[in-house]
Each structure stands twice: as structure tokens, then as C-alpha cells.
């Protein structure tokens, strides 16, 4: 139960890069980090426009002296303060993640970074080495992973309740970009520009969400080969795709399918997973995140509800209110930041054992997302052929 | 859009009475009030056990000097401080609401009180007069009212999209008290003891939630007569009911039906409203609060989703994230405290016009809930007969 | 499994009164009776307009000699033939049911009659005595009772899986008569004219459907008292109601609630039952009749599907196709006529024991529907007061 | 409206090959053909065991003289009778379809054949030429196509309500064969034996159902290339697959995805289509076949219901009962046989124009199914590569 009492060592002095005025995701980060008082927002380089960023910081209640013109200035100044930030969250366009993340680690900060962590696995490995060398946590913002029923699914699968896993169906397929909204929406525009977004649009921007959830639920599953076919149905988006189908063959013979789509007209999020075992299946849908469907072949289908006593302890430990009340995305993100706070503390203590028990999207999750997009793009650009996963 | 920027005059120095360790609703109040930084928790009399309350306050980060033994001590001490609290939230058992609320008003504080505001309409009117005399806001914790789609329903009905209103179906019917859980759960126990809970259990504890939502959606609807039949299916709960059916005849001929039940085995919340007009109906369900069903006779049923551009501005102004993402109960409560902050400021300015535009459960909502329970109990105790609403 | 093989003694020579051209329910009766070849349509008095009825009969393939001008002619002529009808179905306006049913019994025919069987319990008892004296089956067209999951619910309740029954929620609330459609629709018009429809509209026309299902599921439940409030929201319908709320107190203390409504704008059928016990609830909805929801308090909700091996044999015996395929209303009605054929044979054999095992809406079901409407109307016309059930 | 009145030229004298005792699909064919009295079952070679077939035929009421030992005997004897059959339905294992269908055409019969029509496109073309030469109708048993809302989808797409079609999502993914049920179930066994089933299991047995529905909804859509990956999760089924993923690239750039699966544990049918256009999407699910979801981007989602006046006439012409009542699979099949009867009559009249207006799965649909499986198998057996559709 999370009830607002502070974690040991908290609140953690915290800053943000990006996420300024009109940034929706910036608000989500702040809302999540500050919710349980485990972080305190004391500094920021919120905007590429320094003056606008400063005004915004003041509106948030940040001391104007600590509203910086850019991340370099922030990292340097904060490092010199006795009360300087210990952690930073990065919510900027994709093309800047690598350099900011690297600079933050070099400044000795724990990092929470928007996905993708970077554009290449080579870059990702550089960040990994740096995080190890400096003993700093790098977390990735896979917010959906904080929903308690994701942990429930993981526990049920681990206990063999589904039997051998055969098929993993994943999708994140919304319709909000059925038309070329990027012509009028700046928030959409950079996502479809390779200079800012990197080598993919929907694969990296939304496809990695269900991919990460599948990794949480099925930590032992490893991709052996995959094939990806991608399209730009709004043709001005080429070479970036607004739709992609990916088939995966896992080691051991299980199969995966992931559909990432931004042109699924009329669909809200369409973010779903279905894990199919030899005995039973589990299905979760982010629009009704308080329910998990459990279907045992030959038995009545079951609907599990968040907060109920029949769930595994791992799915109950972060409840904020009893069953029957709808929790939403903000609770999931807050749970994630709660885990990040725990992970930062454990990292500082070099408590590797504790770290193992904190289910959070760490740098390995970030690397895996980058790798998956790389492989998908390699397959798609070769004509949708099967490629060995590397 | 709510994005974390501060309202003018905020944060408001704020204290709590009750809502201590293990109080779920206390956490909800704090989570809601602090979420948008419009309130700052600086004082509390959190527990009937003073030492336990003090420890809990410290864990929340409240200055130990301002963790008080009881509400009287808090109101007196805070009134003497230049930085004393301006507002207090009351989350104690029902039987104490009246005296604490009265004391808070006498101390010049704005008040947010758990329902029921008090036990009799006579008491309620005393609070009303006091709040007017002292120019202080009294808000009641009808948290569901903060869901954006409730405002959407209100706007659609006001615009005549349903035609003349004929029937209002309401229910809050969960199954969590199918057995005598009060024998082991202290949180359940006082709710079923007339000494603490007052003249009703489910009518006042859960029935007033959909009743208030119906009042928000249909501000012009006035009850003319009602009849209520109540039962104690777990017999040790008598004279308090764990199930009640209420039929209402509104002025003008529309009919209402409200089912309050705590023994609806296997049901989660079962908190639903359906408003039926001559042309169309609206239906809302708190377990999937981001959807509103709009059924026009002779046309395909429509499902409206929170955050979409086709909604009325009143249903969009408190969005925290774009459509497709699930918002939950905490967002609804935060919206409510956001409105309470606005209402406190408007009250202080004596800006009656602004106050009219802030859709919040004020003291009149509190009075109406008390009156409704009084009438229901009067009918039920007379054998379930029709009584004139008074 | 029903697979088209003939029952012993079948097909039964069968005629119809009413149900002619443009009669929807007439088609449903024929479709149901002929589906499994247990009946053969050989005679009819299909229409009040004799010539039109004759033409229609011919289009159905009935020998023109056996297309009669009225039911009296048919009963007389058929009685004189060696191959004359053994059974008749009555699908005429309500006000004629009693006299036709009586004449059929006097002619030695088995009868399937549309509800209501008649208008008063006195009439109903006369029919009962006649059916006993002549040893003929009288069945009533409660078609929904043929859905296999109704039998499943009955079995689960009988086995105590729900615990003591506390509350029965029933509703049949559609929106198709939100406006005064009777001004242009002959099929609707007579239903709202007391001369043809009798003392009620929605209570008798749709309310008795869920009432009968509750009797099937809960054969031991007896109404002790009830109160009914009825309205004519389309005022030209008065004194007949287009909406009615009925509360029932059963012997032993359980409570029932039945909402019958024809002005529930935008609703399709809204035909639902929820039976609530001390341990669990069951819920069934006629728009998705292949599913039955089973909710045990404290456990995941379960969805049972028609045709699955985990169901009771009584819920499997009339399957026509394996699970997963949608069966609909026509299958339910066909099952009912299948049972009527079995019941006619058993009646002819005077095999009372067999008759007990055939779950069909017999004359007692017909009487009970008439009685319930009588009591509801008595309560409503006295101002919605509680009346002893008699 | 279908109401039981006979079509001109009907009933058609009709026989069956296969579909005997314990054959579920045989019952479905008979139930569908006889439902509206457009066919009369007068002959049959119901079983490979002649005596058992004769007994079964008698139980169905077929003259024992016309219960034949095999199809050859039946075709020969019936051809010699003045009242001989005009049409035959074939419900035997897959490997016999070609020869029986050919023999029927050579005997001058109209044919309704279970899918697949045959095993190779070469065979299919031979049947096509024969049907043209003999002027006989060949229909294929794609029963789901008879659901009225399929016609509604076709009309809406034809009118451009979805905008340019971009993506077609198809699936038929049940869980009934998660285990090796074929070891005990004869009905399952032959389906997984290449000698009887042909080159595929789930692709041909269930995958062609949504494929055909997509062809009905989107008659102009032509596959250009496809890739298929198939698995035998129950390994004893190899080389036949119990799961297959197929990606299709259509001429003009739209994409299709079809998932056929018999090991989707806990799923009932999982038979769904979603057609996505630039403006809107349509979604249909066979377990709730009376609803069609219409999602226009930026507008509330709509749920269309069978039988409602806002539907296109093509979706209303085969209604058997008004909206709100659940129709099921049997109605869909009956509608199909209704169309087959119309098509047989039109074929006999050589009325090509009328034939064009009767939406039925004709021999071209049969050929297309065979071709699709051929292409899928070719791709899958080459390692899941893209192949040109031929």
C-alpha cells in the first residue's frame, strides 16, 4: 500500500531537462515523481527557449536561480551546490537523449530518460558502461509497466499457470495520426522527422511499450529471428512508418506478433497484450487497466480485478486505494517513479540484491528497445525478410 | 488542461483532522489536494491517538510542532500563527463531522468535509448560516463528481440533447460487505454502528454518491415524494441497512430509482447512472469512468471518450493527459480539490459570480445529502411508504 | 444435442390461430415449431380477414382447404378429420386468448398460447380446471426460457452455489416506444389499448418475461407483498403504463425488483436478470444470451459460455452446435417447442413423472403471470402502496 | 424480411452426401436449408457406413428407398426419377470434395460444398469449367457471410464511408485444440491428417472464413504478395499447422493480416475482422454478430445493431425478427441457403443479371480459398518468405 509516507532517503532532489510549457509528457513525469513526495523538483532546463523555460519553472514553484538555460548549465551549477540535484529526468526529442543522458551520468546523476534511450546499440552500450563505471541508475519511461496487473501476469506466468508459452500477441494501434496532423501539431511533427525521431516512428514510439511489457511478463523469452514490414500510409511520413507488423520467433519455438500503428482510425489506444500458453491465456488492455483476463482452456473465463485479495502480493504492494476504484495511467507512472526512487537508493548503497527485487525498466530495458527497433528497421528495409536478431 | 502550474493565491496552507495511519480515504484527500500543488499540508490532528497521529504526521513530512493532539488544539494554535492554515479537511467518523466542521468555521477556516456533513437538516442549516456569516467555503467530498464526463453529461442535458427527462436510474451496489466483515475490519465496523454512522449505512455511505451525480447532471430536478425500503441482510447490522431501494417522484413527473447495496456479491463498485430522456439516454459507470454512453433512440449507440475534441469545453478543461490514456479516481478527486482551491479563493474575494461557475459539491450539496437520507429513513421506518420530501 | 432426428410420436399435426401476414411473432412460432420437425403445420386461421389469411396459409404451403375463416371453424372441422390437428398455437391480441384457449381445450387440443393467458386469475383457474379435466397441455410462450444458460442458472442455484438468495434484480427496458409509435404502427397500437391489451401494457407485455425467468431459476421463491408504481410517459397511453417499477418482498425476506419500460431511449432490449446470494451472484442478459456471468465474492468474476463441458447436463442437452458459435432467440424458442412436443406426448401418456422433468412454461406459469400483473395493477392504482400478494 | 413464405420454384428437392449421425455440420446444413422451406430433404448418402446412414436418414424422415449407400448410387438413381433431387450438399472430409462435386455437376445437380472446394487451383478450375458448361450453381459453405451486418459493412465501404482502405485485420483463433484432442475425437482427427485434410489445417479450416468475409466487404481488393509463417505447437500435427500468421500486400498498397489459430487457449471463436480506412474503421466479431462497431476518427465510436432502421436495405432484407433480439449462426446459415435457393433458380433461368445481385459464396469464392491456402503453404514451406500471389 502506498499512502504518502516518505521512503528512507527521500525526497530526492530532482531536476528536469525538457518537459516545459505544453509538454504533456513533462507533466506526466512531474505528476508521477512528486505524487508520493519521493522527489522534490528543485531545478530544470525546461525549454529550448531559455526565457520561456524560466517562466515555466517559476510557475511550477522552482527557484528562478535554478531554472537554467540548458542542461549543461544545469548539470554544472547543480554539481557545485551542496543541495544540488541527485537525479534528472529527460523529456526532450529523441535525438538529444544520448548526449544528455551521457552528460548526466558524467555529472554523477541518476537518470530517468524518455524512450528511446538513444539511436544505436553502440550508443546504448556506451551509456551502460558509463552507468556502471559511475554507479548510477538509468531508468526508462515505460510507464505502463507500473500497472499492478502487469506484475500479476508476470507472477502467474512464472508459476506456470499458463503452461508452456506459445504465442505472444502485442499491439499498440491508435488512430490519432490517421491524417497528417503533424502539419499543424509541433508535438507530432518531430516524431515523424528522422532528424529528431531517429530511424523509426511507430516502432520506437509506441511499439516498444507492449514489447517492454512482454519482457516484464516473460523475462526468459529471447528473440531469435524477426521479420518486419512497415508502411507510411500518410506518404509524407516516409521513410518513417506509421504502421508496422513484426513477427518474432523466440528461442525455443514460441512466436510473437507485434502490431504498431498510428493510423488505426477511430481506435483509442489499442494497447493490448495476450500471452498464450499451452493451458491458458492472459490478456491485458491499457484502456481498462484494472482488469486482467485469465482464460483457462475448458473453464469459464475469469476477470481479475486490481486490488483484490486473490492477487499475488507483488500486484498488491503498490495499491493506493481498495479494489473497485479505477486507477489510471498516473498511478502506473507514480508506481514507476516510486520504484525509481527505491532503485536510486539501492544503487547508492551498492545493494545489488535489493536492486534485483525492484521491478523497473532499467538501462537493459532501454538497450533492448533500441536493439529491437534496429532489427525491425533492418528487416523492413531489406524488404520484410527474416533476420537473425542481433 | 491541468499541467502543474500553480493557481493564483496557491498553495493554500492546509491541515487535516483524521485520515491518519491506515486511513484509505485520508490518503485520497492528501493525494488529491497535494497533486497540483494548490494545497500544502502543514498541520494535522491525524489520529484519535495523539502519539500515533504525531508519528504519522512526521512520516508525511509535517513539522512535528504542527502535529496536534486534537482538532481543538490545532484550530487554536494555527489561528495564532501568521502562517497558520487557511483550510482544513475532515476525514473522521460521521458522528464527529458536525462539531468539527462548526469549530473550523468558527476558527475562520475553509472546510472540506467527508459526507455526511452531519446527521440532521437542522444541524446542516446551522452550518450553512455559520458559513455565510463567516464567509467560508464548505465543500463535501463527493469525489466522483470530478470525472470530466460528468460535466459532459451535465452540458448535454442542459442543451436538451436528451429531450425531456423521464427517468433517472442510479445505483451504487458493491459486494464487499456480503459477509459480516465488520467483525474483523475496524474501518467497516464504525460504518455499521449507529452511534458513529448515524441513521443509515448504505443510504448515506454510498447512496449519496450517485444522488449527488444526478444533481450535478440535472440541477433543476427536485424530489417531490419518495419511498424507501431497506433491509439488513446481515442481520447483526440492524437497525442499519446493507441494502436499500428508493423510488423518487420528481416535480413535473419524472421518476428516479436509486439502489444502494453493500451485499451485491461479486460486484465491484456497481456505481452507475442512466439518465433517460424522451429522445436519448446517457449512461456512466465509475469502473470505466473515461467512457460515457450516449444512446439516441433509433440511432447507433455512441461511446464518448474522455479527452476527445468533440466534448464540451467544460469536460476538457481539467484534462491532465490526452485521450486514450486511462484517468482514474485520483484524477477525479484532484479535479475536485482544484475546484475547492478556486472556490476558496473566490469566497475570500467575495466573488459570487466566479463561485457560480465553479462546479463543486458545496454546503448545499451536503445539506441535500443529509435531507435525502432523513427522508429515506422516515419512509423506510414507516414501512416503505411514500412520503412527501421535506 | 438436438440434431434434427424426430422425437417419438412426432411430427405432431399442428395449427395456428393468428400470426398471419406481417405478424412477427407468428413467424417466430412457426420457425420454432417446425425447426426440429416435431410439428407439422397443417391448418390455420391466420387472420381476422379470412381471405387474406387463406392466401397467407397457401404461401406457407398449407392446404387451402385447411385455411379457415376463424378458430371456431378450424376446431370443428379439424376435430372431424382423422388427420386433424392435435395441437394449436394462439398468436392473437390479448383479449381473445381466453376464449380461444378455452375453445381449444374443449376441442381436445393441446395449446401453446401467447402471454397473457387471460386477464384475470379467475379466468386462468377456469382454464386450469379445463386442462386437467381434458388432460391437455397448455404452454405459454415465454421464449427466452429456452436459452440453455437459464437452465444452468437454475441448476447452480439449486445446488446452493450462490448461498441464500437475497435479491433478485430484473428488468426488461427497451426504448422502441419512446415516442407514440402506436399512431403509425398497428402492431404497437393494440398493445396500448385496454380493450385489446387488458389492464396493463409493459407489466404484462414485457415484465412477465424476466419474472418467468426468475421463477425458472428460483422455483421456491414466493412473493409475499409487492408495491408497483407505473407511469404513462407518453400521456396518450394512459391508463396503460409505458414504465413500471415493482418491488417485491418474498417469503423468507429476500427482495425483488423488476423494471419494465418501453421508453428507455436508445436501449435495445435491456432484458437482464441478476440473482444475488450470500456468496455469489449470477447475471444473464438476453442480448448476449450465450454468456452467463458468475461472480463469487472475493474471487475473479467468471464468464460461462454456452456449450462448454463444464456446464450442467441440463444446460447442454439442447445444444445444436458446439460452443463458440452464437445461438440466438430462435434456438431458444425451438428448444421451447421441443419441450412442448415432449410435454404433449407425456400428457397424452398421462406420464406425470416425465412431465415433471420437462422444464417448460406450463399453465401454472401462465396463471402466475396473470396474477402478478393483477397485483401490480392493484398496487399501482392505489397509489403505489404495498399490497399482500394474492 | 424472411417470414416463412415460399420462394418461387421452391421447395427444391435436395439431397446430402455426408453429414450423418454425430456430424455437427451436417445438422447445420439441414437446419439452414429446411428452415425457410426453400429446400426439401428427399435423399441422402449420409454415411460411409451404408446401414448407419440409412438408419439416420429414416430418423430424419427421409424415405428409406432414397437413403443410398454412396453418392454415386444416389446421383444415378435420383437422375432417373421424375421427382429426383435438383441440388445436393456435400459435407464429407476434404479429400472427397473434388470428386463428389465433379460427379454432382456431371449429374446435372446444383451443389453446395463444404470448404475447401478441392485441394488445388487446377482442380478448382476444372470444376469451374464444368459448372459453366452444365450451367449449374456451385456454392461454398461460408456460413458467417449470412450475417446481415456483413452486408452492412460491404455497403458502407462501397459508399466510401471509411475512406481509402489501408489495413484489413482478420483472425479466427480459438483454443479448442490447445491439446491433442484429435487423439480422442474423430471429428478433429481427420482435420489434422494430410490424407484427408489436404495441405493445411487452420489456414484452410478456419482462416478462409475471415478471408471470405473480407472479400465480401472489399470485393475490389486483390492480393499482390503474401508471406505466411505456420507452426505445429502440438508437434504430432506436423506437417499440418495449428497456428499461422499471414501478411498480405494488396494491389495499391493496402496491407492485410490474418491470424488462424486453434491453440489460442481459453478463447472461444476469436473470429473478428477490422477494416481500417483513412477516415474510419469497422469491426465485427462473430460471437456478438448482431453488433458492428463503426469508429470514425475524432468522433464517438458507434455501435450499429442488426435490424435497426438506419441500416442499409441490404442489411435488413433478411431479418427474421425485429432489432434487439439476438440472431445467431443458424440465421446466418439459413440466409445463405435462402440465397442459394435464389441463385439456383436464377441459374436455371440463365438470369445472369439477377445472379449478380445475390450476394453468395459462389465457385469463385471457393477457388479463391483454395488459391489462398496454396500460396500460404508455398510461402510457409519456403521459410515464411514473401511470394507473389498466383
From TrEMBL, chains A, B, C, D:
Residues in Gfo/Idh/MocA-like oxidoreductase N-terminal domain copies: 13-142
Protein name: Gfo/Idh/MocA family oxidoreductase
Gfo/Idh/MocA-like oxidoreductase C-terminal domain segment(s): 154-387
Source superkingdom: Bacteria
A single MF term (Gene Ontology): nucleotide binding
Classification via Pfam families: GFO_IDH_MocA (PF01408), GFO_IDH_MocA_C (PF02894)
Lineage start: Bacteria, Pseudomonadati, Pseudomonadota, Betaproteobacteria, Burkholderiales
Amino acid at each position: 500500500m502506498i499512502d504518502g509516507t516518505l521512503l528512507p532517503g527521500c525526497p530526492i532532489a530532482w531536476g528536469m531537462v525538457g518537459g516545459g510549457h505544453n509538454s504533456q509528457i513533462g507533466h506526466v513525469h512531474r505528476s508521477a515523481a512528486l505524487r508520493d513526495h519521493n522527489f522534490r523538483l528543485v531545478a530544470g532546463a525546461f525549454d529550448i527557449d531559455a526565457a520561456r523555460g524560466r517562466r515555466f519553472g517559476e510557475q511550477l514553484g522552482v527557484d528562478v536561480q535554478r531554472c537554467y538555460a540548458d542542461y549543461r548549465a544545469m548539470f554544472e551549477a547543480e554539481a557545485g551546490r551542496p543541495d544540488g540535484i541527485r537525479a534528472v529526468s529527460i523529456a526532450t526529442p529523441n535525438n538529444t537523449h544520448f548526449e544528455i543522458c551521457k552528460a548526466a551520468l558524467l555529472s554523477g546523476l541518476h537518470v530517468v530518460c524518455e524512450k528511446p534511450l538513444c539511436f544505436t546499440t553502440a550508443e546504448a552500450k556506451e551509456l551502460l558502461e558509463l552507468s556502471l563505471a559511475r554507479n548510477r541508475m538509468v531508468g526508462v519511461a515505460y510507464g505502463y509497466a507500473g500497472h499492478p496487473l502487469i506484475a500479476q501476469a508476470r507472477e502467474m506466468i512464472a508459476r506456470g499457470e499458463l503452461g508452456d508459452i506459445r504465442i505472444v500477441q502485442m499491439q499498440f494501434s491508435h488512430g490519432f495520426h490517421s491524417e497528417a496532423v503533424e502539419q499543424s501539431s509541433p508535438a507530432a511533427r518531430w516524431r515523424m522527422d528522422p532528424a529528431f525521431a531517429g530511424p523509426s516512428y511507430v516502432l520506437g514510439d509506441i511499439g516498444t511499450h507492449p514489447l517492454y511489457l512482454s519482457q516484464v511478463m516473460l523475462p526468459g523469452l529471447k528473440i531469435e529471428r524477426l521479420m518486419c514490414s512497415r508502411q507510411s500510409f500518410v506518404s509524407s511520413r516516409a521513410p518513417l512508418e506509421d504502421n508496422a507488423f513484426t513477427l518474432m520467433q523466440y528461442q525455443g519455438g514460441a512466436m510473437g506478433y507485434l502490431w504498431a500503428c498510428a493510423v488505426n482510425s477511430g481506435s483509442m489506444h489499442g494497447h493490448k497484450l495476450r500471452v498464450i500458453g499451452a493451458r491458458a491465456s492472459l490478456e491485458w488492455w491499457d484502456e481498462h487497466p484494472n482488469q486482467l483476463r485469465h482464460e483457462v482452456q475448458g473453464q469459464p473465463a475469469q476477470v481479475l480485478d486490481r486490488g483484490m485479495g486473490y492477487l499475488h502480493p507483488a500486484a498488491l504492494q503498490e495499491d493506493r486505494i481498495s479494489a473497485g476504484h479505477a486507477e489510471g495511467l498516473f498511478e502506473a507512472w507514480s508506481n514507476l517513479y516510486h520504484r525509481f526512487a527505491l532503485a536510486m537508493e539501492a544503487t547508492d548503497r551498492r545493494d545489488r540484491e535489493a536492486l534485483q527485487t525492484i521491478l523497473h525498466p532499467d538501462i537493459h530495458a532501454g538497450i533492448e528497445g533500441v536493439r529491437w527497433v534496429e532489427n525491425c528497421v533492418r528487416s523492413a528495409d531489406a524488404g520484410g525478410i527474416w533476420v537473425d536478431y542481433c
